[in-house]
Amino acid sequence: MRSHPNPFTQPYWVYREWQSALLLAVQSKVHLPDNEDTPGLHGTVRFLLDNGVIKNPVIVASTGVPKLDTLMLQQIVTAQVPKPYGQNTNQPHEFQLSIEMLTPYKWFEYHVYASIDKTKLYGRDAIISGHTGITAVDFDYLDGIALNITVAKSSGHAELDRSSVETVSKAELPAPPLGYAGKTVHMQVIVCYEMHDSFNQSNNCPVGENVIAVVGTRIRRTYTTYN
Length: 227
Known about the structure:
This protein is an alpha+beta fold. The protein has helices at about 15-25, 65-75, 105-115, 125-130, 160-170, and strands at about 40-50, 55-60, 95-100, 135-140, 145-155, 185-195, 210-215.
């Protein structure tokens, strides 16, 4: 029987979906102090990623506020980096990211998306069938619970739509931000399913803070000939 080729033949840092997951993990940690609410402050940081640990972060472009630059560096080292896939996963690599100092509410949104990202799943039957697509899921957030979960836009495949709804329903969502306890917040996530193999490595997922990229490895049937 022929062995399956390794679909991830490039270094882990070149895969766009993984880069997006890294940015989401880092961005979800960076926010303004609770007593500040000035939107639109950005900074650029450079750091070394070494076996899942962020080391030696430095400011490349300042937020314009020195104390916030210091806070940003302190916050990004606490990020839980997603597990890489591809080659050279144990090799340190330098990254440079543009990061926003999130307001308390935007920080809450990022934690919602990051929580949902942790429960994503590409069903085995969908992978075998080679199904890909994008599902938009609407839901109401209330005090750490996702309610009224519905498919706002179908992927065209029932199994992918079911997985998307399950991804949202199983997520352990964060507590509401200050002033939102007891209030319903309408939200949407975009769950993008892509298939990679040694012959096709597409990048069809949209870019956005609420996009959850789910990468599957294509399963190809092989046959054994007996003489």
